Amino acid sequence: MNCYLCGASVETYLLKNGFCIYRCSKCGLGRTDLKKEYRTFVKQHYSKGYFTGDPRMSAYVDYKDDKVYIVRNLAKFLKKIHKHKPQGTLLDAGCALGFFVELALKKGYDAYGFDASSYAANEASQLVGAKRIQHGTIAEVNYKKKSFDVISMFDIFEHLDDPRADLRKIYSWLKDDGIIIIATGDTRSIFAQLMRRRWPFYSPPQHLFFFHKKNLADLLRQEGFTPFEWSRIGKWLSLRYLLHLARTTGESRIAQLVYPFAHHSRAGKLPVYMPVRDNMVVIAKKHL
Ligand SMILES: [Zn+2]
């Protein structure tokens, strides 16, 4: 296998959850070997259980019930967008249950979203109206060319199996003076380098690509975008979600023991701020 980005040879980086993550010997891009067809995987994996705490998914404990924390994080992203585009049409790619679409609508944007999960897209439709939500992957959905001022991709980029092809489609939907905003894990963040295989972001098979700033910037430039603002954010989450991450991808035995108590107690819903800043946020525009 060769690197998706630069074509150099790859080597085994780690084995986790029964999957192999390879890393490029030259540019450092990480990639999961999914071992099956992506479309089939997406349909099976992003079910209701993914959002409601099925431990086999290493995903969310209760996405809907943790809305207050999720929205708190999303509000930070909206603030960044607002600085550059205070109004206009907005598309949230990988909108999950539609919380960001709802938030952007409240702020005055003409907001839309889509998600590959039929459970999520259905929930999002109920929240913001069916005309604003589509169901499908980036390859499957369609929008008018040059129709959006803003396209957001929060915590979705690492789930894509062909981010280059997907960026091309995103590019076609974006107005010439539009912006995209991407938030994804950074393999060269201090936390990622400290945690190594226990970094919760290394969670195959849901996460398929592992970028750092340099190789994400390279991919964006190759596909017609100029990145112009980089930042990092800490995240709010519930205590039980933190423990859930620790017991699944963090491989913590203590969290495994403590989790059942936290899940059913009020303490489990307490807010925790994780200032680890292992996520990078980039805003990019089209090349002129
Ligand atoms: Zn490479």
UniProtKB/TrEMBL annotation:
Transmembrane segments: none annotated. Pfam families: Methyltransf_23. CDD domains: AdoMet_MTases (cd02440). InterPro entries: SAM-dependent_MTases_sf. PANTHER family: METHYLTRANSFERASE TYPE 11, TRANS-ACONITATE 2-METHYLTRANSFERASE-RELATED. This is Methyltransferase type 11 domain-containing protein.
